[in-house]
Design brief:
This protein has a single domain, classed as Alpha-Beta Plaits (2-Layer Sandwich). A three-stranded antiparallel beta sheet has the order 1-3-2. 44% of the residues lie in helices and 20% in strands. It is globular, with a radius of gyration of 14 Å. The protein is α+β, with helices and mostly antiparallel strands. The chain contains three helices and three strands; from the N terminus they run βαβαβα.
Length: 84
């Protein structure tokens, strides 16, 4: 990612599993992305249920495409969970 690119928040990532799947899908689409994890070591994840696991950021030019990919990944996760 280029330092001049403005990163914008796309949404909240609920857990590490979702984060890995979303990052993988975005990279496959050649969309640069990063996750800012909400780590609070002293509280051992106490606030994750309220805040989520982390926030996903992409360059502004990829915002809409990234939202679509995230939606697809979440639907895939739900479908896989329903099959169990």
């Amino acid at each position: 990612m280029n330092k001049e690119e403005e990163l914008v928040k796309v949404g909240i990532i609920e857990n590490i599993f979702e984060g890995e799947m979303v990052l993988s899908a975005l990279r496959s689409a050649n969309i640069p992305a990063m996750i800012k994890k909400y780590e609070e070591t002293a509280y051992d994840g106490l606030f994750v249920p309220q805040k989520g696991w982390g926030s996903l950021f992409v360059p502004r030019e990829y915002l809409e495409e990234a939202k679509d990919i995230i939606k697809e990944v979440r639907e895939k996760i739900v479908n896989e969970t329903d099959k169990r």
